[in-house]
Amino acid sequence: MRQDKLVLGFYGSVLTIVFIVLGGGCALALIFRGQLSEHIKDHFEYTLHEQYGLNTERNSENRLVTEAWDSMQQTLHCCGAYGDANNLTSWAIYKLSSRWHKIFGGSPYVPESCCVDGSKKDLDLCQGKNGEFIGPPAYGPGTGQRMVNDALYTEGCYDKVVVYLRSHSILLSIVAGTVPGFLLFGIIISFYLCTKAKDIIDDEEAEI
Asked: pLDDT of 100-118, one tens digit each?
């Protein structure tokens, strides 16, 4: 019985620590959400500037970064780090500041994963290989952009991630609320059983 009491006490203590850490993490996330948002945007920019599409056969980290970006851009229908079609850090980040684009020196201006449905049909139009189209990605962003390219995703991925999370906010809230609830329930039960075990031990010692 003493061993059971120790196990229950240890279990309850671990659950309490996890509960405190989880609560502290949530509090810090709310307090520093502005800084967190900027950090994510900066990280998005850095990976596109310095890692995307570079030496992917030999550099495993760059390969994973490239695959992650391609998957996100196709899944969320986005292109680049953040911002709308006229922002320098959305689709235009590839041609303006990425080392990936410097390899080509011209078209393609964006990777295939920025193309609508990854279709080969409009790939030249999407990547700016069609010299007759006066619009993104060959032209723009801003004043030089005259036409809308229906074959190209032009909104940044950070903005799409925010929209996705907001659209699933109810489900996320339920999950976020359920986990601490289960932890708290486990803490109460474990310490209750620990107390009962202590009473039983005291009764047994009194009888002796």
From this structure: 998 887 889 999 999 997 5
pLDDT in tens, 159-192: 999 888 777 666 666 766 677 777 777 777 777 7
181 phi, psi to nearest 5 deg: -65, -45
Phi, psi (rounded to 5 degrees) for 21: -65, -45
* Beta carbons of 89 and 80 less than 8 angstroms apart: yes
User: Quick one: which of 159, 107, 162 has its CA closest to 138?
Assistant: 107
Here the tokens at position 101 are 């684009």
**DSSP readout, the chain?**
-HHHHHHHHHHHHHHHHHHHHHHHHHHHHHHTHHHHHHHHHHHHHHHHHHTTTSSTTT-HHHHHHHHHHHHHHHHHT--SSSS-TT-TTTTHHHHHH-HHHHHHSSS--S-GGGBGGG-STTHHHHHT--TT--STTTS-SSTT--S--TTB--S-HHHHHHHHHHHTHHHHHHHHHHHHHHHHHHHHHHHHHHHHHHHHHHHHHHH-
CA torsion angle for 190, 196, 197, 203 (degrees, to 10)? Answer: 170
| Spatial separation of the C-alpha atoms in residues 96 and 140, rounded to whole Å | 10
